[in-house]
Fold Phytanoyl-CoA dioxygenase family protein.
Amino acid sequence: MKTMRITKEHENHYREHGYAVVDSFCEADELTAALKNFDEVVPGWAEFAKDPSGSRPEYFSSPFPDQRGIPHFPYKGDALNRLTFHSELSRFATLMGEGEEMYCEQSHLTYKATGQSPKQGNVDQHMHLDYGNHTLAYPPDVPKFWQTAFLYYFTDVTLDCGPTAVCSKKYYPERILFPRHYSPEARPEIYDNEVKVVCPAGSLLIYGMRTFHRGTAITGTSHARLGMFVTYAPKACRWMGIVGWPVSAGKKEFHEWVVGASVSERSLIGFPEPGHEFWTEETLDGVAARFSGIDMTPYRDS
Ligand SMILES: [Fe+2]
């Protein structure tokens, strides 16, 4: 059996506190490939992160030409797409969701550096819950409705390099988690008990829609931090999800990805699964025509 990178200890910590940090989740070759791939998607950033005293890369002070000004899945190249669908992420989300089938509702890159403006994310955020743009409704304390968020860090996160701050759920035991933002004056105990996620490159933070956390600004004089947000949600819950993937389905990157992806990876973004009544001679031929090169056999055989 493959070793589980998210261990029982991480699971116990997550259940008790609402978050867990998996140090060095990525293997060395995965991290190298992710950084190389990062530079293909957002040119120059991985190089810049190595030496932030060098010249500023593209999109340092302008939005990226994708949804919400941020690079989203599907990415050019393989490494970031693969980490989005790493089997440990869906396994852990399903475990937390007590067996609910999951889908990937978010995958986008994050990059910040000394000298970037607050508008680009280099800012001390207030403590908040992420459900504001991840659900149309409310995240109940019922595991089968839990969304699980993952934040990959591809560069070392030190105290002066904008670590994420997160607070154990012991410090906000109220029944209804609203409002979902607090200033330090309004809820000092959430700030006083925050933990800064300092970790080596390749680590993973796991949290949920009921976990107070905040991004912090880079205070070092020459630093950069690269990462990727990935979130899984129960597939049955149409009211959850930060993006609709069909908006990207016309992109070249999507075509490349969908042709190379496994059936289960496709299902993880909501592509109709084999055996679904959607599949008819018409839809089999239509999808094959639209995405030339895709192997329709698993859908045809079911
Ligand atoms: Fe957040």
